[in-house]
Amino acid sequence: MRTHDSVSVLIFNTTSHCFVLVKQFRPAVYMCEWERTKPQPHETAEKADEGAAEAAGPESQEGPTVPEEKNSPPQPPASAGVTYELCAGLVDKPDLSLEEIARQEVLEECGYDVPASKLRRITSYRSGVGVTGAKQTMFYAEVSDDNCVGEGGGEPQEGELIEVVKVPLHEAMTFAYDESIPKTMGVIFSFIWFHNNMSPKYKISTNV
């Protein structure tokens, strides 16, 4: 499958000492969770065999056999498709640098206006290697409450519905390793990177 490369940004608010993430609904994640609730093929076959055995009961039964209505599992709530992610976006503007694209995403999704020159490149890597093999470049941005010029939330006209979420620094590693919280690998990796490279600067434990 052909797709664009992308950028992601680990945002750290130096005023409140918290990370700024985005939370949004992902159809693919939702469909995976929905598939988990559906009966497996062997379960469906067993139910079919049971139904056939009941239909071939004693001839003395009066009246036609009425098949019971199949009880399908309830559809998962929309929250089953919500994930926590780094601010990110596609590299689909050839006239802009990666830093400039990352800056636009931070402004649109999270509401912070950060100069492109203040973005620190962390690394780049291949994402979606089983499907797309596209490259993602990760940046680090420090912001303060003074940089906040809007509420964020993405671009509604592009179908984006994003909630801005803050994770306190001292809870970061607990958040990263909590398997009950649906998140991307980028969140986990970037929190570890921050712990190894930036936390001594703030002299605050990241609770590892």
Largest sheet: 7 strands, mixed
Specify the overall morphology: globular
Alpha-beta classification: alpha+beta
Poorly predicted segments? none
What is the H/E string?
A: EEHHEEHEEEHHH
What is the tally of helical segments? 6
Q: In percent, how helical is the residue content? A: 25-40%
Distance between the termini: 38 Å
Q: Over the alpha carbons, how many angstroms does the gyration radius reach?
A: 24 Å
Strand content: 15-25%
Number of strands: 7
Q: Give average pLDDT, whole number.
A: 84
Key terms for this structure?
208 residues; alpha+beta; seven-stranded mixed sheet; 7 strands; globular
Give a concise summary.
With 208 residues, this protein is of the alpha+beta class. 30% of the residues lie in helices and 24% in strands.
Task: Characterise this structure.
This protein has 208 residues and is α+β, with helices and mostly antiparallel strands. The chain has helices spanning 27-37, 41-55, 98-110, 172-177, 185-197, 199-202, and strands at residues 6-13, 18-25, 82-85, 87-90, 120-127, 134-143, 162-168. Strands 1, 2, 3, 4, 5, 6 and 7 form a 7-stranded mixed sheet that branches. The model has no long low-confidence stretch (mean pLDDT 84).
Fold blueprint:
Elements: E1 6-13, E2 18-25, H1 27-37, H2 41-55, E3 82-85, E4 87-90, H3 98-110, E5 120-127, E6 134-143, E7 162-168, H4 172-177, H5 185-197, H6 199-202
Parallel strand pairs: 1-6
Antiparallel strand pairs: 1-2, 1-4, 2-3, 2-7, 5-6
